[in-house]
Write the structure tokens for this entry.
Amino acid sequence: MNFDPRTVPYQKTDHHLPLVPPDRFQSQALIRRFTDPPNWRPEFQAEPRFSDRSLTSASVLIGVVMRERPTVLLTQRTKHLSSHSGQIAFPGGKADPDDSDPVFTALREAQEEVGLDPRCVQVIGSLPHYTTGSGFVVTPVVALLGPGLSLLANAFEVDDIFEVPLDFVMNPMHHRRHTVSTAGGSRQWLSMPYHDGTQERFIWGATAGMLRNFYQFLATD
């Protein structure tokens, strides 16, 4: 897309929506939620296509680091990559032909990108597919991670590895709604800017859309 998302004003936040009860961020509560899911519907499933490439299967790992205040593991992609360069993203990527399933893809990609040992990952479930404008059909795989992780960024793909508090990205007051007009038409999207005390982490697009679906999944009674 030929625009800088940071420069697009937001129209509103979703402050009217309910907060996720804090006890739902605990490990056993998250496991129970996937074991016995609520009757819910994802809000964001497909972006307007801006590429005519064939649809490609991919997976990302939504890793919840079980600290005293749980966090979500995220990366800053390098600027030279052909897809979603420079953006904030979950560890992940496209499926290889010999990957056994979307979980395998997510774990393999997370190990390649940030050095995450699959033996340290407790996969608890998946969210519905999310199709990006660039043609990736993404399976978001949700997993619990221990706080003592040893990570190392793959310098070719990842500029930075960081964490954002789960209760921040699950708070609809921090979900900003944007609309931008491009040559291909109007596009609506969310952002969830987070300032870590040193710099702003501008979460938007597909990553924000999948986090919004995760919010809907956790907030539904």
About this structure: Helices lie at 27-35, 102-114, 166-169, 205-219. The longest strand covers residues 56-65. The chain has a mean pLDDT of 92.
